[in-house]
Design a protein that fits this description.
With about 100 residues, this protein is α+β, with helices and mostly antiparallel strands. It has one domain: Alpha-Beta Plaits. It contains three helices and four strands.
């Protein structure tokens, strides 16, 4: 695996104040993809090749769109072909080494 990291936030618009159930559906799609991923309070990050990451992102947006008439998406990508697998963790470990 490798090639890119994509950190994204998908927010339903017009579905009321509580968006947790819709967001959970997006995270469910990401986790079911089998790609390395991590979810925190602000973003979900997924690692893989361009086509597979974009397919997961599209499916996650579709999952949220079933709950709302409009969907907002913010994406930040680090495209680095040949960087090797597990950039999701290695980038953090590099920073931690510098902090030690």
């Amino acid at each position: 695996m490798g090639g890119m990291l994509a950190a994204f936030s998908i927010t339903p618009i017009g579905a009321g104040e509580s968006v947790g159930a819709a967001v959970a559906e997006a995270v469910r799609v990401v986790r079911a993809s089998g790609l390395p991923n991590r979810t925190d309070a602000m973003f979900t990050t997924v690692e893989g090749e361009w086509d597979e990451v974009m397919a997961v992102l599209r499916d996650a947006v579709d999952a949220v769109a079933r709950h709302a008439p409009r969907v907002s998406v913010v994406v930040k990508m680090d495209v680095r072909p040949g960087a090797g697998a597990d950039q999701l963790h290695q980038k953090v470990e590099t920073v931690e080494r510098h902090l030690a």
